[in-house]
Design goal:
Helix content is 40%, strand content 22%. By secondary structure, it is of the alpha/beta class. It folds into three domains: 154 residues, Alpha-D-Glucose-1,6-Bisphosphate, Chain A, domain 3, CATH 3.40.120; 197 residues, Alpha-D-Glucose-1,6-Bisphosphate, subunit A, domain 3 (Alpha-D-Glucose-1,6-Bisphosphate, Chain A, domain 3); 92 residues, 2-Layer Sandwich (TATA-Binding Protein). Helix 2 links the parallel strand 2 and strand 3.
Length: 480
């Protein structure tokens, strides 16, 4: 059996290669054993959900069957569901934890398993490591997987089918002014990217009296060949809809709807850096306060806005689980990452593309005009920023070795600007004196090396990316 490894947000692998029913059963047994040991025989309840990927429903039934056979009661979603709705159900139902079958934004050939904690956010890295350790021990000892069929689970009452939407929708309605969106008659286009966001953002809007334009809202387990990540190159269809319709705001969610992307009225992509900047500025205008938590790969615009209001900024490694930890411990106003996972005060510590899309709609409805005009207004105060990321396929290597190789060959300047700080929290981030930055780090979910850059114009971004590619190539040669 190929070694099962939990990355920044669960275990993901290629369907039928490593992501098999046998391996899903083994992981589920390890999860059951770990939670049973931690809770000393107490009555346990788990929430299990799944996305629209190939065989996700069957994998979810398998997880539910193993958990139930180990004495853990299971609430299993009656159909596919958005990850944030499943995560909220864990809190609403006072469950001990949960499992979401999804590979999130990964290509269609992948599936995955996200382990959720009692607070609705991703399990801690420590918990994920313990699942791996329990799995390894089970394999060494020849522990047999306990399992029961869905039918047996339903008959015995150990498995119950449920709909997570009503409770989630009521919660979202307390965080977003849906009436303001309806009153503004804001024309909105929504691209669900064939993912689990189908029936969430669009349904919430319809129930508020807004009829959105919808794109890729059909069931298609292969995503129609689309890569379900809401970034510019995968949203050409939404961009065309924006240009061809009267829509003023475009919203896109990824494969399991925990990430958000947006479009302006003229079809320009609004990336998560800008989404978080718009959201933070709006929440501050509403009088809300709290710290700002962001991953190492996220925009400096948040730092500048926070500085205007005297707010603390905390930077974490990539992975929403790091943000979750801080949201649980402190008064966080907004927490997010460049990939589009964002949450706000009053919500669960979980990235939520549905909630953030609706919050964008609210701020556009209340502030008027196009989302790009609102962003330009903010940049007029804090300065203009541009961002891009390049991914390069790579062979597996040690992250500490990469960091050592990069820091050993770190230049004094990039783009002719002195480097003010080297940050090795996750990969290597070169922060320049003018506020621009370059980050090189390996992905936690795919065999790629990511190179990120933010600067004051796109030309400078491209120069930083080119320099980053050279630095990464040199480091890989050293490691080879």
């Amino acid at each position: 059996m190929t070694r099962i490894h939990f990355g920044t947000d669960g275990w993901r692998a290629v369907i039928s290669e490593d992501f098999t029913f046998d391996n899903v059963r083994l992981v589920s047994q390890a999860i059951a054993d770990m939670f049973r040991a931690d809770h000393n025989g107490s009555d346990l309840l788990f929430v299990v959900g799944y996305d629209t990927r190939f065989l996700s429903d069957r994998y979810a039934q398998t997880v539910a069957g193993v958990l139930a056979a180990n004495g853990i009661r299971v609430l299993l979603t009656e159909r596919f569901a958005a990850t944030p709705a499943v995560s909220y159900a864990i809190v609403h139902e006072k469950a001990s934890g949960g499992v979401m079958i999804t590979a999130s934004h990964n290509p269609p050939r992948y599936n995955g398993l996200k382990l959720k904690a009692w607070y609705g956010g991703s399990a801690s890295p420590e918990a994920s490591r313990r699942v791996e350790q329990t799995l390894a021990e089970n394999l060494r000892s020849g522990r047999e997987v306990r399992q029961m069929s869905l039918e047996e689970g339903l008959r015995s009452g150990m498995i119950t089918l449920f709909d997570p939407y009503p409770a989630y929708a009521a919660h979202v309605a307390n965080l977003v002014d849906l009436d303001a969106i309806a009153r503004a008659r804001l024309p909105i286009a929504i691209d669900a990217m064939y993912g689990a966001g189908i029936g969430y953002t669009d349904r919430l809007l319809r129930e508020a009296g807004v009829e959105p334009i919808t794109l890729h809202h059909e069931m298609n387990p292969g995503f129609g060949g689309l890569h379900p990540e809401p970034i510019a190159r995968h949203l050409t269809g939404l961009s065309q809809v924006m240009r061809d319709s009267d829509a003023m705001l475009g919203l896109a969610t990824d494969g399991d709807a925990d990430r958000i992307g947006a479009m302006s009225a003229d079809g320009r992509f609004i990336d998560p850096h800008c989404i978080m900047t718009l959201a933070l500025d709006y929440l501050l205008q509403q009088g809300q306060r709290g710290s700002v938590v962001k991953t190492v790969s996220t925009t400096q615009m948040l730092n500048l806005l926070a500085a205007e209001h005297g707010l603390d900024v905390i930077e974490t490694p990539v992975g929403f689980n790091h943000i979750s930890d801080l949201m649980l411990k402190g008064d966080v106003l907004i927490g997010g990452e460049e990939s589009g996972g964002v949450s706000i005060q009053g919500h669960i510590p979980e990235g939520d593309g549905v909630l953030m899309g609706l919050l964008l709609a609210e701020l556009v409805a209340k502030q008027g005009g196009d989302i790009q005009a609102l962003l330009d207004r903010i940049m007029g105060r804090i300065g203009r920023f541009a961002y891009a990321r390049h991914d390069y396929p790579t062979q597996p290597f040690s992250k500490p070795d990469l960091v050592q190789a990069l820091t050993a060959s770190a230049p004094d300047r990039l783009n002719g600007v002195p480097i003010a700080q080297l940050n090795t929290r996750d990969g290597v981030k070169y922060l320049l004196e003018d506020g621009s930055w370059l980050l090189i780090r390996p992905s936690g979910t795919e065999p790629v090396l990511r190179v990120y850059a933010e600067a004051h114009d796109m030309d400078a971004v491209q120069r930083l990316l080119a320099a980053g590619a050279e630095l990464a190539q040199h480091a890989q040669r050293v490691l080879a």
